[in-house]
Amino acid sequence: MNKKELFNLMSNFNSNLATKERQAPLRVGVVGLGPVGTLSVKLAIRGGFEVVGYDRDSCRVNEFKFNNRTERKLLVSDNPECLADANIVLVAIRLDFDESGNIELEPLQNVARMLNALPSMQRLIVLESTAPPGVTRRFAKEWLQSARNDEFLVAHCPERLKVGDTEDDLLRVPRLVGGLCEESTQLTCQFLEHLGVRPVPVSAPEISELSKLLENVFLTVGIGLMGEVTRISHALSLNANEVAQAASSKPEGYFPFWPGAGIGGHCLPNDLRILRQIAVDTGVAAPLLDGVSNSIELMTPAVIDRLGILLEEHGLCFKNARIWIIGVGFKVGSSDLAHSPAYDLVRGLRRKSALPIYSDSNNKYFEIDDVSVERVPPETFPEGVVAAVVLAGDPSINLNVLDERIPVILDVGGAKSMPGNSSKMQVL
């Protein structure tokens, strides 16, 4: 199959769907069955494609098979040979840092080796991963076999997934498309349009790569700024949450941020780190990015300081105090512990000689620095607790119960996910 045949196959597929005729044999492969890959699979199935999902983690594959056992157009495997007939391959893998602090590109290199080993045919390869500028080009020009480069059309189309997003949510968000050539950009745009997603073509993959970093670091800058405003509010004895609420009433020219314990997850911490490293590598001074990183580090200590003041107001102190942390995911609505502020919160409380415990319906085990944190099942009320910190929250715990039995309750953002009300709860 050559490029022209791949274009024709896509066009025929669209036409056949529109006329409800027999569909052309167009198959989409998805590499990586994490959160991004999972939704990519669902969107492709919804678009009428035959889909093959690949992940090297056999446990994840088995779980994915069970959760999607009624899907007739889906094949899932931990054997990369399942991608042999895939005309379009979506690469949805996560890039992390190695022990030296450098972005680890080996996962993408492994994907390239895997594609090189597949039977010869024309394929569209779409990288959905967030990556430093230049990585998509290296993937296509260096890691894919040069003798077979004409077989591969490569484009960067970064995911724009938020925690809790559904398939319908994704359809409303435009996607950047940066192809290595006009054909790869055009075909990727055509694929997205078929899914119901509006494509935004850009001139090169480096544009989409840097744009994706800008999007996420913008959020991190806002969170860091809100952290500083929170500390200033505390110094002035003002309610930081009310300050943020008042600012959010401006309809244009302002993006609302709220007091919190810091940033977490994979994207925001890593993308700030990537952009700072790019600045260093290119010799560009980036004092704003450096300052944001420092500001973020002060957010969790601000929570502990605020909690200490509230304890003092009740004649209490940290020493030997049982502090109940409710919800340890990195943000409200997420069970993901990656870079969660809960880690630094527990460390800080331990340094104060407090005894932190936690409840989280989605995380049955929580360990920090090789020491497990005592878990209280959400249906059980812990004894001897003097303060509760509602971090990510837990919808299975009612705030009314806290109000009845705990002297100090501090909401760090998670209370909105919980039923009931608390008259004594303080906000950060």
Automatic annotation (TrEMBL):
Which organism was this protein described from?
hydrothermal vent metagenome
Q: Which SUPFAM superfamilies match?
A: 6-phosphogluconate dehydrogenase C-terminal domain-like, NAD(P)-binding Rossmann-fold domains, UDP-glucose/GDP-mannose dehydrogenase C-terminal domain
- Spell out the family assignment given in the record's similarity comment: Belongs to the UDP-glucose/GDP-mannose dehydrogenase family.
* Gene Ontology MF terms: NAD binding; oxidoreductase activity, acting on the CH-CH group of donors, NAD or NADP as acceptor; oxidoreductase activity, acting on the CH-OH group of donors, NAD or NADP as acceptor
Residues annotated as domain UDP-glucose/GDP-mannose dehydrogenase N-terminal: 27-186
Q: Any idea what this protein is called?
A: UDP-N-acetylglucosamine 6-dehydrogenase
Q: Which InterPro entries match?
A: 6-PGluconate_DH-like_C_sf, NAD(P)-bd_dom_sf, UDP-Glc/GDP-Man, UDP-Glc/GDP-Man_DH_C_sf, UDP-Glc/GDP-Man_DH_dimer, UDP-Glc/GDP-Man_DH_N, UDP_ManNAc/GlcNAc_DH
Which terms does the UniProt entry file under GO BP?
Answer: polysaccharide biosynthetic process
Please report the stretch or stretches of sequence annotated as the UDP-glucose/GDP-mannose dehydrogenase dimerisation domain. Answer: 208-293
- State one Pfam family annotation: UDPG_MGDP_dh
